[in-house]
Amino acid sequence: MEFIERNILPRYAAFDDAHNMQHVMHVIKYSLQLAESLGADVDMAYVVAAYHDLGLEGPRAIHHITSGKILLADKRLERWFSATQIQIMKEAVEDHRASASRAPRSVYGRIVAEADRDLLPESVFRRTVQYGRAHYPEMSEEEHWERFLQHMQQKYSTSGYIKLWIPGSQNEKHLAELRHIISDKNLLRREFERYFKA
User: Fold this and answer.
1) Who contacts 57 (Cβ-Cβ below 8 Å, separation ≥6)?
2) Distance in angstroms (rounded) separating the CA atoms of residues 183 and 188
3) d(C-alpha 152, C-alpha 171), whole Å
4) pLDDT at position 99
5) CB–CB of 31/60 below 8 Å?
6) pLDDT of residue 98
7) Residue 192 burial (C-beta neighbours within 10 Å; 0-12, 13-18, 19+)
8) Measuring CA to CA, how many Å separate 57 from each of 65, 89, 174?
9) CB of 60 closer than 8 Å to CB of 73
10) DSSP per residue, 83-142
11) pLDDT in tens, 150-189
12) Distance between CA atoms of 198 and 192, rounded to whole angstroms?
């Protein structure tokens, strides 16, 4: 933990508000809860959660692959983990992406994928607005709304690409709430405006 807290977590300070220290701490906390409930190695779950978004130092589209490479290349981890464990953790980091076309390869991939999905509607709306404002500052409010609406429909709606890998998780309940709001465009617009103005 000392190694991660000193050398890995500070790197999240360079990322946008949707992928900052608050985000990685949420992913770590939820990953540890899931690891304990599933009987997985909590140390491995902790490392996977801590490294999962480091690839945002490069192109976002491949950040999950880059994150896995960063973990695999970090020889300091050999002090605590075997080569097999490091390979499993690398693959878990690669498998965390919400748009992945296949199921995660291990319980650690399922854990970090689930933990990375903070599906509390307020968190989803806030992070989507934060990301848009940080990456597209030239856009008007109406253009931000269109981007926000498209993202909600493509990712979180009943026909969206998001997948949950741990049945009975708190995310199932939150996703149902989220989909209810998305199905009502007027309600969704009010939520967007609330976070955009904040």
Assistant:
1) 11, 14, 66, 70
2) 8
3) 16
4) 65
5) no
6) 67
7) buried
8) 12, 19, 29
9) no
10) HHHHHHHHHHHHTT-TT-SS--SSHHHHHHHHHH----HHHHHHHHHHHHHHH-TTS-HH
11) 999 999 999 998 888 888 888 999 999 999 999 999 999 9
12) 10
Least confident of 5-14, 36-45, 55-64, 95-104: 95-104
74: amino acid identity, one letter: D
Least confident of 22-26, 72-76, 149-153: 22-26
Looking at the chain, the number of H-run helices and the number of E-run strands are 10, 0
Q: Which two tokens stand for residue 143?
A: 């253009």
Percent of the chain as helix, strand, coil, to the nearest 5: 75, 0, 25
> Contact 42/27 with Cβ under 8 angstroms?
no
Token readout for 172 is: 């199932």
Q: What average pLDDT does the structure give for the chain?
A: 92
Spell out the SS3 assignment of 49-77: HHHCCHHHHCCHHHHHHHHHHHHHHCHHH
Provide the CA 59 distance to its chain's centre, in angstroms. Answer: 16
Q: Quick one: average pLDDT of 64-74?
A: 94
